[in-house]
Amino acid sequence: MQWLLQEFEDTHKLAEALDRLGISYTWHKVVPFIGELIPKPVVADPGSVVMFGSYSLWRNAEANGYRPGVFKLRPFVQERAWHPYLLNGADALFIVLRDVPARLADDGREWFLRPVDDSKEEPGNVKSTGEIIRMAERVLALDEDEIPTGSLRHDTLLMFTKPVRILREWRLWAVNDRIVTYSLYKDGSRVIHRHEIDADVLEFGQRMVDVNPGYSPAYVIDVCRTEDGLKLLETNCLNAAGFYAADLVRLAAAIDSLGRD
After folding, report:
1. For residue range 76-97, what is the model confidence (pLDDT) as tens digits?
2. Where do the domains of the chain lie?
3. Fewer CB near the terminus (10 Å): N or C of the chain?
4. What range(s) does the ATP-grasp domain occupy (predicted)?
5. Distance of alpha carbon 233 from its chain centroid, rounded?
């Protein structure tokens, strides 16, 4: 597998793991809005390339036919196998951004919102209806050709759900339908990155992978503990998700093995 890395703090951590495994890689910058890599990589086999950095790398991967390149995901809320386990999504309200001012009343209610697509346009967060409407109006005040790539757009489909109290949150990495590493990343309201996981959480994470096999060769699954038990928060593109306190040697070895399977 040929590894192409964009310069970020997390990708430098990944590079250290690749060094330990004796796996070579190259560093690249990404031309904003265009997506070209500098320097341009010399690729021996486009069918055996993986890229890590910003989510926008998928465009370069698609343009050059790199495989696996970037592991793009189907929206997790459309995966019926996961509906019984979702914290947010199964009973969500779905609104295209251009319709938000007309569809939401400025009544002070709070919503958890995020884009349906795994696009990083807006991180999942809680906002009041007033904040959401103002956010939408700022985007709608722009002509669509003025909006930078990777930002919220007039036609972005958003998901709205009732906020739920979360006790702890973990990120798990699935490769070839197996959980290969994990990290605690939130304890209540405190951000804490530790390489630890409760046994029932690890079992639940693997069960989420098992009930929806083949979702992607590699992806991130976020799981939380609530007062009503364990829930699936969301999935994320593994190539652009934070590593927190994951075992990157295990993760890199698992991803590299995809090119040999």
Report:
1. 988 999 999 998 766 788 899 9
2. 2-69, 76-84+164-258, 93-161
3. C
4. 128-253
5. 11
